[in-house]
Amino acid sequence: MVKKVAVIGSGVSGLTAIKACLEEGLEPTCFEKSCDIGGLWRFTDELEDKRASIYSSLVTNVSKETMCFSDFPMPSDFPNFLPNRKYFEYIKLYAENFKLTKYIQFKTTVCRIEKHPDFPVNGQWNVTTESDGEKKTAIFDAILICTGQHVDAEIPIDSFPGIKMFKGKVLHSREYKRPVGYDGKRVLIVGMGNTGVDISTELCTLASQVYLTTREGVWIIPRLGKDGYPFDLFFLRRINNWIENLVPRSVSRWMLKRYLNNRFNHELYNIQPIHRIFWKEPLVNDEIASRVLSGSIIIKPGVTKFTETDAHFSDGSIVRDLDVVILCTGFGYSFPFLDESVFKRNENKGNLYKKIIPLGIEKPTIAFIAFLLPIGPTMVAAEIQCRWATRVFKGKSK
Predict the structure, then answer these.
(1) Has this prediction a pTM greater than 0.90?
(2) Nearest of 233, 179, 234, 185 to residue 201 by alpha carbon
(3) What's the CATH code, domain 4-151+333-394?
(4) Fewest C-beta in 10 Å: which of 18, 219, 264, 385?
């Protein structure tokens, strides 16, 4: 009997999940609550509830050769680093080429996923969905969770004393779409990740002054690499991996630090990371150095408190008369449709085998796809995870 698999979400992970199911002879049904595929990469000017959001100017951080699926190369006329609309076009081409959309039920919300009464024996799931006001429940042999990790904005209010008193505008980066309405404003951007730096380099051409905070520092990698090629074509090579595994870890880290600081002296710009190299996701940006040198972006340490108009920082400095605060404090993820006996984030964080299947579950028939932060493109990791998970469902892998 062909096993039925429910795929939750039709973003990049959901699409490659559908394809992996088909390759293993499984029968996928994908549930997508919006009207189209693409997930994070489908830009809209309106902020949609419970859906990932991006800004209009977003460009990929890795080159097209690195972030394409293994069996579907990017079109040759696509640029090396893709604006979000171009990557969405690629996703559309991928779905059309492998005829994936016919397995998707659009405008269908997953309300509940719970274990079938005989789960310890058959590993099956009851999936309740709603579409056009009508609820349905169906039985599936396995589940692939592909809802993404850029939906629930994390706003650590307790980390910013006094921010509720601030009289200017406060928003999370999830709400930022275009650089409209920032002319002549004094803007503080909290968080020096890829999003924070992208927004700061865009707004600094319009705002009277942009301040960018970092508590821990960050390693910066330019898109432009050796001999004018994309940086990752040089960086992600077998010889570099061979050297890293051959020499002591301390030596390989020193070599990488030296390479990065030769391109951009992090200590000089007050962003030298306090942690081990690549302990967290590196930053990919080509503009930040020139913007800091020109003074249009001023780097500040961590915020200690806010007043009605000002921000205080850990070095004792104060920035006065701020108009806007943008919190680039990242995202969390949650599964309100999933029974907590299967996965409770606060308790189960890190308790996913291979970062995919919950430890201790009676039957390995549920997989969480792309809930990780690799040094490299998440979509490539998602493809490999789906291949492995579907083989586990099929009984080909343990």
Answers:
(1) yes
(2) 179
(3) 3.50.50.60
(4) 264
